[in-house]
Design a protein that fits this description.
Length: about 375
């Protein structure tokens, strides 16, 4: 084996061995199946819907179960309202397997199973922070979890070998394992996932009643803030209901903030009104700065806005010439207004690289629309 081939084989070697059983062949379950099969892991799929199961198998997410299958790991990837029931069934059906789930709420199923008196020694709740606006096996992707956090909720009864198995699952699909308690997890996702969904949906709801003239003015700001509003209502009713208390806490605090800004804008010339609005915007700046970016770093980048003609190959040429200039693209956002014959590429670069990138691209004929930090 050549040195290159050996390195490639080392890179793709799976940590998991044996059979992994995935119950639920929707977006998350099928995506896990695709990612594990890409590493040579034997994946068995099960789903309450025969058509969903056949579709996931046809797409290559795993195989149909057989009577003699003995999985070492069971992954429960079903809707939140049946997660506890399926976990219980899988623990009983596979007494030698470790069982985990990928539901976005961790405390409710854990408490429900304890209330039923189920032995949870072999159960470890987990949650990959990944997803798409579209669901189902047809939307599954093997790269869905790459670089994403995967929360693992251990407790005092968790065996080290069982914990290692669930962490190996996260690592094999390209995710980054992170240990939290169920309470810590649910409070965190209320702020970073569940409330953003509510806010995006409420804002997008205003668009449903807007006139066509207003919608023609929609730019990247409203598209960014409403992107996740396309999510499935049936799923989110379950998620929000299961994590209601922490979600309500954040919504109440947010409602107070909105009320303060609204009151200031009712009389914008009143003493302190402008300061109240400015403080709200500045506080938002501080929050955004705390969000981890590339490689989990809280680094700030400069943003260069380049006008790109709407013709084939232009974006590739832009990246190629940035590479020739020695500029690393830290992030990219594209905006293309309806009817325009060009797009705007907002390119995030290290502050030290901004001047060289600007001058170099202009010398090569690119039109610079400005940078967003001016």
């Amino acid at each position: 084996m050549s040195e290159t081939a050996g390195a490639r084989a080392t890179q793709v070697a799976a940590r998991l061995s044996g059979t992994v059983r995935i119950v639920g062949a929707g977006l998350l379950g099928s995506s896990i199946g695709h990612a594990l099969r890409a590493k040579g892991v034997d994946v068995v799929l099960a789903d309450a819907s025969p058509s969903q199961l056949r579709l996931a198998i046809d797409y290559g997410a795993g195989r149909a179960e057989q009577a003699d299958d003995q999985p070492a790991l069971v992954v429960v990837a079903v809707p939140p309202d049946v997660t506890a029931d399926v976990i219980q069934a899988e623990l009983l059906a596979h007494p030698d397997a470790v069982v985990t789930d990928v539901a976005s709420v961790k405390l409710q199923p854990f408490d429900e199973l304890r209330r039923r008196g189920i032995d949870l020694t072999r159960y470890i709740g987990s949650h990959p922070l990944a997803g798409r606006e579209r669901g189902g096996a047809i939307s599954a992707r093997a790269d869905l979890f790459i670089g994403r956090p995967w929360v693992v909720c251990r407790d005092g009864e968790t065996r080290a070998s069982d914990l290692a198995l669930v962490e190996a699952l996260a690592l094999d699909v390209g995710a980054m394992p992170l240990e939290m308690t169920p309470q810590e997890h649910d409070r965190a996702v209320a702020l970073t996932s569940h409330v953003p969904q509510v806010v995006a949906s409420l804002l997008a709801g205003r668009l449903a009643e807007a006139d066509e003239g207003s919608l023609r003015l929609a730019g990247q700001g409203v598209r960014d803030t409403t992107r996740i509003a396309a999510s499935a209502p049936e799923l989110w009713v379950q998620i929000l209901g299961a994590n209601a208390e922490p979600v309500v806490d954040v919504l109440d605090a947010l409602a107070d903030d909105l009320r303060d800004v609204a009151e200031a804008l009712r009389t914008p010339d009143a003493p302190g009104a402008r300061r109240a609005v400015a403080d709200a915007i500045r506080h938002g700046n501080e929050g955004v700065e705390r969000l981890p970016g590339k490689h989990g770093q809280n680094r700030r980048f400069e943003t260069l806005v380049v006008m790109v003609d709407d013709t084939p190959g232009q974006l590739g040429r832009l990246f190629g010439e940035l590479g020739e200039l020695g500029v690393n693209v830290e992030d990219l956002r594209l905006e293309h207004s309806p009817g325009a014959q060009f797009g705007l590429a907002e390119i995030s670069v290290a502050p030290a690289a901004l001047r060289g990138a600007t001058d170099g691209l202009q010398e090569r004929g690119w039109r610079i629309a400005g940078n967003t930090n001016d």
